[in-house]
Amino acid sequence: MGLTSRNVRIAGLGIALAGVVLVVGAVLPAIYPDTLVELVLRPAFRGCHQLADRSPHLEGHAFALCHRCFGIVAGVALGGLLAVLGLKIDPSRRWSWVAAASPIAVHVALRWIVPATDLAWLRVATGLVFGTFAGAAVAVALAHVHPPTPPSGGRVGRNVRGLAPRETSS
To answer: What is the pLDDT of residue 44?
Structure first.
């Protein structure tokens, strides 16, 4: 296992854990409605419309995310896990991102034409497809971000005052 493969696994683990934290954060307002938990977590997910009739429910209380966003967040966790398991994805290929997002686009267009296709499980599933790709792709991209390696025996860059390091004579 090379350095890049190890980095992908580490980044994938971080992405998977972040996804799990987001899934739990989305579910907690439904478990503890009308509490400080809901007051803190619902605004954290303001990128989602959070319409109650388009969100998963637990005992009559809506999650902090809609079906599609919940699928995306769960997919990010799954994508991070797949990166840990060695899934190879090239995040620089634009067509891959288009292919991953196309189920969402097709579903949105189809529900305008045939309203009967606007099903909750389809919204979750299309989000899950995109989120899984995105989680794995971000893990691979993060694994290729490296700090500069200093030459042996020396420092790279500038010191605290912004000055270049002094040359020392032996």
So the answer is: 83
